[in-house]
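User: For a reading group we're discussing how well predicted structures match intuition. Take Lumazine-binding protein. Before you show the prediction, I'll give you the sequence so everyone sees exactly what went in.
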Amino acid sequence: MALISVAGAAVVIFLGEEGNSPETAAQRLVDTMNDPDASNADIFANACEEERRRYSEPDGSLREATGPRMVGAVELVLDGVEQISDTRAIATMHVAAYPDNQLRFFVVKEDGEWKDCGSADE
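Assistant: Thanks. Here is the predicted 3D structure of Lumazine-binding protein, as structure tokens, for the group to look at:
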């Protein structure tokens, strides 16, 4: 019985880590961007502190993005994620209609969670 408990705990730990990876964070960003019902708040719910601060109003609310609405406007495809340190990775993606035009975004680990953290091409 103890062996089953230990094996079960190992599975929970493994699956928990799998759900908390740079790849998972990058795919979550792609999925949110592709969702026509998503909002800017949905995007920044999984953003790093720097991104949240950059797009926040002084009262802490999320500033509306200027320019055309991007959420759900294009279909993004995740090409891959390169982890460059224990706390930083770069996700490469493209707009489905333009596979040769790649976009790169930082993914960082903050407080034990992987989060998207803005363009790596700025």
